[in-house]
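Hi R.,

As promised on Friday, here is the backbone we talked about, encoded as structure tokens. Could you run it through your design pipeline when you get a chance and send me back a sequence?
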């Protein structure tokens, strides 16, 4: 790998419970226009949801934000008890491993990708991922983990159990999976094979043909969680399979009681990522009476304010 001059490491950032942030968001709710008002609505709804007794709080998001400093905010949400269940994509496992054991770097959207490839970097938006610290590093982490599970008699594992096991192996307070394991927040990955960790599971299973991923066990757990909950709420960041799996399983209990959506997608093409809360109501995935709020924004720019507001409101309670 050729070193590129002047690269800065991607560092996690964290929420700050602040009366100033709370006051600013409230003023945006009172007098803000366009999405400023919606930012307050999401922050207030999420804050109320996260403090509601008996409400099981889901957090869904795609993996890319774990490659950024936003991972620190996700850690805050788990550590401070703002969420109870996570539904995400395989890249969350990939990036959490890679960033816990190595480093990503800040780049730009306009870099020369052919040069980056020759220099040994992948580009994820404006984040640079060293090739040697992604696939090869994940392989070095996952193969011994899977071997140990197999030697201990394991022949199948759910994505929830695998996520917890990775958190145990990483053992770092920087790691989202570490905190999820510590706080007993289950992490479900319905599309587990769509990523580097999933590829490592496939590779292991090629030489251990009796080893399986048990996605049905994940579904049983999600069924139990939603059916036993007094109320459920969800903070849905972005879209894709994470969003759909979250709202889908809440359909079977009559829908979410709370729903906060943040997305940059529009609904005109029929995509799930752009589908509004109202569409989910038509499917029974969100209750007609649900407390809801939506925000059109790029998540990494607004989540610091939302989490900080929720922590400040909790401090005041």
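Update: got your reply. Pasting your designed sequence below so it's all in one thread:
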């Amino acid at each position: 790998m050729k070193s590129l001059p002047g690269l800065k490491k991607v560092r996690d950032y964290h929420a700050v419970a602040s009366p100033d942030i709370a006051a600013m968001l409230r003023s945006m709710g009172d007098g803000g226009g366009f999405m400023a008002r919606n930012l307050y609505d999401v922050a207030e709804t999420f804050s109320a949801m996260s403090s509601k007794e008996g409400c099981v709080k889901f957090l869904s998001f795609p993996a890319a934000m774990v490659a950024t400093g936003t991972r620190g905010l996700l850690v805050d949400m788990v550590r401070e008890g703002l969420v109870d269940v996570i539904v995400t994509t395989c890249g969350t496992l990939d990036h959490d491993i890679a960033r816990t054991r190595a480093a990503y770097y800040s780049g730009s959207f306009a870099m020369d990708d052919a040069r980056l490839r020759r220099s040994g970097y992948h580009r994820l938006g404006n984040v640079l991922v060293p090739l040697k610290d992604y696939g090869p590093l994940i392989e070095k982490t996952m193969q011994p983990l899977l071997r140990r599970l197999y030697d201990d008699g394991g022949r199948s594992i759910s994505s929830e159990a695998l996520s917890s096991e990775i958190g145990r192996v990483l053992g770092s307070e920087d790691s989202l999976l570490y905190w999820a394991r510590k706080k007993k927040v289950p992490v479900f990955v319905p599309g587990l094979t769509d990523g580097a960790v999933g590829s490592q599971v496939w590779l292991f299973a090629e030489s251990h043909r009796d080893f399986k991923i048990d996605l049905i066990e994940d579904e049983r757990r999600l069924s139990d969680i939603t059916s036993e909950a007094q109320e459920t709420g969800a903070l849905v960041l972005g879209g894709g399979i994470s969003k759909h799996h979250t709202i889908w399983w809440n359909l079977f209990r009559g829908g979410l009681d709370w729903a906060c959506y943040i997305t940059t997608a529009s609904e005109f093409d029929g995509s799930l990522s752009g589908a509004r809360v109202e569409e989910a109501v038509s499917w029974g995935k969100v209750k007609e009476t649900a407390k809801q709020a939506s925000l059109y924004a790029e998540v990494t720019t607004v989540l610091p304010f939302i989490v900080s507001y929720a922590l400040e409101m909790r401090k005041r309670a």
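One thing I noticed while checking it: The first strand starts at residue 55 and ends at 60.

Thanks again,
M.
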